[in-house]
Design a protein that fits this description.
The protein is mainly beta and 98 residues long. It contains one helix and nine strands; from the N terminus they run αβββββββββ. The chain has a five-stranded antiparallel beta sheet, with helices on one face. It has a four-stranded antiparallel beta sheet with strand order 3-8-5-6, with no helix packed on it. It comes from Salinimicrobium oceani. InterPro entries: RmlC-like_jellyroll (IPR014710). This is AraC-type arabinose-binding/dimerisation domain-containing protein.
Length: 98
Amino acid sequence: MLLKELNRELSSASKPLVKRFEQAEGSHVLAIGLNHDVILKEHKSDIPARIVVIKGAITYISGNNSIHLDVFDELEIPIGEYHSIEPREASIFFVIKK
């Protein structure tokens, strides 16, 4: 139900929607929804992380580099790398940290 709820809220969201999808010792999975004009501001991860897009399309931006990710694309996020996420349309993706 969590993903259906996130999808329902997405069209009216004016800020990033973040839901804890799953948690286990030493790891967790976040489901993040970004409406078409909502940016996930620059931040970094201090533990290994991976993005998996499950709806829409996003752009991962780090410094002068940008990587376009579409549905079912995935990307390893380097530890300590500052990055932001911009949606190219209303999007939902998992961030898997462990």
